[in-house]
Amino acid sequence: xxxxxxxxxxxxxxxxxxxxxxxxxxxxxxxxxxxxxxxxxxxxxxxxxxxxxxxxxxxxxxxxxxxxxxxxxxxxxxxxxxxxxxxxxxxxxxxxxxxxxxxxxxxxxxxxxxxxxxxxxxxxxxxxxxxxxxxxxxxxxxxxxxxxxxxxxxxxxxxxxxxxxxxxxxxxxxxxxxxxxxxxxxxxxxxxxxxxxxxxxxxxxxxxxxxxxxxxxxxxxxxxxxxxxxxxxxxxxxxxxxxxxxxxxxxxxxxxxxxxxxxxxxxxxxxxxxxxxxxxx
Length: 281
Fold this sequence. Notes:
Blueprint: E1 4-9, H1 15-28, E2 36-38, H2 47-59, E3 64-69, H3 75-87, E4 92-96, H4 115-123, E5 129-134, H5 145-157, E6 162-165, H6 171-183, E7 190-194, H7 200-210, H8 216-223, H9 228-249, E8 253-257, H10 263-272
């Protein structure tokens, strides 16, 4: 069973970050990802940037998955944004309830209240692939692990094609999540999110906000290293070992978060020795 890779990018907001995105796309396209996802701000805050960035991916021959969120938007606004992406040739939507900029999620009075509602709303007119989020360490606002799994199952029942997980550095927990999802009757594919550790302090801050855990054992390994090259190699090694173990378990679809910087993803894929290089490379 050959590993299958996909990449996530975020839309640039300036000329230098646009150049960084173009450089990253160019460096990674030789790996022929299954698809590339492009993030999208709440309430359409980055809709134009996302749309333009998606066009850049398409011009490079990439299959694109466009993120769609329900935060601070009416149902009509969400559908209109999704329809704009579909009209541009996108056949894969990543349907996310999203998080409010401040505090707990508050649904728009005329918006989608839950991720399940968003999926069901999109399925009323969209026949392509819909990915939804899964949380191996449980969504921070879920009342329990079992309730979170039931909600995930409801998104699948509403029409989700596959699950894309939040990154999780505890591979044992990832495997338990896959087992528990199967026990819940969830049979759609699981695409595992892998976040290379570019900066251990930044990853700890981000993880604290999104409910992910960075194990103390990993933090200690990074803190024991002063050299940037050594930290880079450690980051690659951690991701490679996780991907190899997941593959051995049958989880062969991996979504790598690029952060619009190609070096870590390149290092991981080279170390895995799975370069599906294009003939023109």
